[in-house]
Amino acid sequence: MSGNNSGKGSGSGSGGGGFEYKSHGVNNDGNHYCARDYGAAAPNQNSYHYSNRDGSYYYSNPNGSTYYNDGQGSARYTAPSGARYYYGDSSNGQK
Asked: What is the mean pLDDT of residues 85-89?
């Protein structure tokens, strides 16, 4: 894998103000990834996201929620409470 492991950034979100990049770059398959540290105040201190060449992407957010999009019309959101919501082709509302 190739990538970088340095830098601080400014960001906003329910996990707190700023963040520090832990790693980011493109892996050998051409997929982008980025991991960030939002600090001790964030429910999910080590959030990350990735996007794949097939159009799918995934976010693990500092507030503890996750979001996955398969790049083909379906998506899933999991709230910090654990409630799951489906959108698009697999849309069945809350699970």
From this structure: 90
